[in-house]
Task: inverse folding
C-alpha cells in the first residue's frame, strides 16, 4: 500500500521551509524519524501534524508520516506561511557593546543567544536586538542586517557588526581573504599529545546527522570546504586541556568538529558527544565532580576571546579581547582544584 495522500495542489501559495535529498546509502526509514535527524527543534508530533496537512512532499507528492524514505528521494517541507526567519521583529534586548564608531561596532555575545533568526529561534536573537538599537543596518549576502560573521548559540565572545554598506563589503572581504584574526579559548576532553599543532581537513554536513558537521577524509576528501585550525595548549588539567585555537578559516562548528576529529571533543559539547565523561576514572566521586562541572557550565566550553581586523575606513589594525565568562571560568577553576588534589 503506497503511503501517499491525495490533496488539492496548492503549490502557488506554499513556501518551502526545508529541502533535502536523501543520501545514496540510506536504509529505508520512516520519514518522520528521518526528518527528526535533519530539522533542529522538531518533535515527532510536529512532523506528523505537518504530514497530515500534506506539508511533507517526496518527489512532488504529499506523503504520510509512515512513508519510508529511499535513496535520492527529494524531500520538501512546505507551509502556507513564509519561513519565520524572513520576518524580522526588532526587540529591545540589551547588547554588550565593546567598541562603536560610525562604521562598525564590536559586541560581546553571551552564551545562549542565537546570532540570527532561524528554524526554531525566531526571537531573542542578536539581530532582533541590533535592528532595535540601530537603524538601516546594511544587509549581508544572506539578507542579514549588519552580520559579517557568526558564532554558535552556546559560544560566547566577540563579533564585529557593520553599520554601513562600505564597512560590510570591506569587513566581509577580510573574513573571506582570511586576513582577520580570531582566537578562541576552549576546554577539551583528554590530555593533548602536542603543545601545539595545526588541524586541516575539509568540513561539511554529516550525511547521517544533519545537525552535525564532520571532517571528510580518504575517498571523500573532495567533499566539504577546506578548514584550518591552529591550536596551542594553555594549561593541562589532567583529564581535560585548556587550549587556544586560532582560526584560519571560518566553517560552521569548525573548532568543535576539528577538536572531535583529533580525539579531543569540547567539554560539555552536547551536539558532538562531549556531554558524556570521555576521559577519567570510574570512581563515583569523579563522576559526581564532572556532573557538577556540567551544571556550572551547561554548554560547550568555547569562548571567542580575541578579534582583530583592519578598520574599513582608516585602514588601522584593531584588536579586541574579552574576558572568559564566569561559567567557563568557574569550570576551569574546578578542574584546577581537582588536579591539585
Result:
Amino acid at each position: 500500500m503506497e503511503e501517499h495522500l491525495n490533496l488539492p495542489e496548492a503549490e502557488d501559495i506554499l513556501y518551502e521551509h526545508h529541502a533535502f535529498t536523501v543520501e545514496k546509502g540510506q536504509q529505508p526509514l520512516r520519514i518522520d524519524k528521518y526528518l527528526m535527524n535533519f530539522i533542529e527543534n522538531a518533535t515527532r508530533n510536529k512532523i506528523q501534524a505537518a504530514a497530515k496537512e500534506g506539508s511533507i512532499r517526496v518527489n512532488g507528492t504529499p506523503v504520510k508520516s509512515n512513508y519510508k524514505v529511499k535513496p535520492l528521494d527529494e524531500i520538501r517541507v512546505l507551509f502556507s506561511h513564509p519561513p519565520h526567519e524572513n520576518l524580522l521583529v526588532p526587540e529591545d534586548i540589551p547588547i554588550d557593546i565593546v567598541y562603536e564608531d560610525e562604521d562598525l561596532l564590536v559586541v560581546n555575545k553571551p552564551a545562549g543567544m542565537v546570532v540570527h533568526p532561524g528554524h526554531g529561534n525566531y526571537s531573542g536573537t542578536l539581530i532582533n536586538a541590533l535592528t532595535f538599537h540601530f537603524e538601516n543596518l546594511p544587509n549581508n549576502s544572506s539578507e542579514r542586517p549588519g552580520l559579517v560573521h557568526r558564532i554558535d548559540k552556546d559560544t560566547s565572545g566577540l563579533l564585529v557588526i557593520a553599520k554601513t554598506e562600505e564597512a560590510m563589503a570591506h569587513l566581509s572581504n577580510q573574513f573571506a581573504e582570511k586576513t582577520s584574526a580570531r582566537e578562541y579559548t576552549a576546554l577539551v576532553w583528554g590530555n593533548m599529545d602536542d603543545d601545539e599543532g595545526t588541524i586541516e581537513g575539509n568540513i561539511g554536513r554529516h550525511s547521517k546527522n544533519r545537525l552535525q558537521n564532520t571532517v571528510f577524509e580518504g575517498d571523500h576528501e573532495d567533499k566539504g570546504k577546506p578548514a584550518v585550525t591552529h591550536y596551542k595548549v594553555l594549561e593541562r588539567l589532567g583529564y581535560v586541556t585548556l587550549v587556544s585555537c586560532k582560526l584560519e578559516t571560518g566553517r560552521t562548528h569548525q573548532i568543535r568538529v576539528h577538536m572531535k576529529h583529533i580525539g579531543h571533543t569540547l567539554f560539555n559539547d552536547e551536539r558532538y558527544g562531549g556531554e558524556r565523561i570521555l576521559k577519567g576514572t570510574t570512581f563515583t566521586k569523579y563522576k559526581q565532580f564532572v556532573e557538577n562541572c556540567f551544571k556550572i557550565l551547561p554548554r560547550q566550553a568555547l569562548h571567542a576571546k580575541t578579534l582583530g581586523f583592519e578598520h574599513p575606513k582608516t585602514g588601522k589594525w584593531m584588536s579586541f579581547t574579552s574576558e572568559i565568562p564566569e561559567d567557563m571560568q568557574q569550570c576551569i577553576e574546578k578542574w584546577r582544584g581537582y588536579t591539585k588534589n
About this structure: The chain has three domains: 11-82, 85-176, 181-340. Residues 19 and 76 are 4 Å apart (CA to CA). The domain at 11-82 is CATH 3.10.290.10 (Structural Genomics Hypothetical 15.5 Kd Protein In mrcA-pckA Intergenic Region; Chain A).
